[in-house]
Write a structure and sequence with these properties.
Layout (H helix, E strand, L loop, with lengths): L18 H32 L1 H12 L1 H28 L6 H27 L1
Helix pairs in contact: 1-2, 1-3, 2-3, 3-4
């Protein structure tokens, strides 16, 4: 039996890496992080309902270096996902499809989400 020669689909090496593709991947990743962060929030609420001993254990984890890193990542994901969601609402209304405008709005979304996260954390610690 002879093997049928079928065309192969293009591999990732064929495509050019762009800001748009990076932001799309980040948007999906931030959604996953927000989902996992929601589970951590539920654990915190359940610990508060379970009593002071359980709450103290969860608080000790979340107030440690690893917990703060998790909370920082959660807040960065939240602000990025929010900003990119607003960007997508403009797209749904028919604005910002020009390549240059889409690139600029993508960079603005990324930079603003980082700045808002830093401002948020400065306000939390002051």
């Amino acid at each position: 039996m002879s093997e049928i020669q079928r065309p192969l689909s293009p591999h990732l090496s064929v495509y050019k890496w762009t800001v748009a593709s990076s932001l799309s991947i980040l948007h999906r990743l931030s959604g996953v992080v927000l989902s996992l962060g929601a589970l951590a929030l539920i654990a915190w609420i359940l610990a508060a309902a379970a009593g002071s001993e359980a709450y103290d254990q969860v608080f000790a984890i979340l107030s440690g270096p690893f917990g703060l890193l998790i909370l920082f990542g959660f807040s960065l994901s939240f602000f990025y996902h929010l900003g990119n969601g607003i960007r997508h609402l403009f797209w749904d209304a028919g604005y910002g499809f020009d390549k240059k405008i889409a690139r600029i709005s993508g960079w603005c979304t990324l930079i603003i989400s980082i700045l808002v996260t830093l401002i948020f954390w400065v306000e939390v610690w002051s």
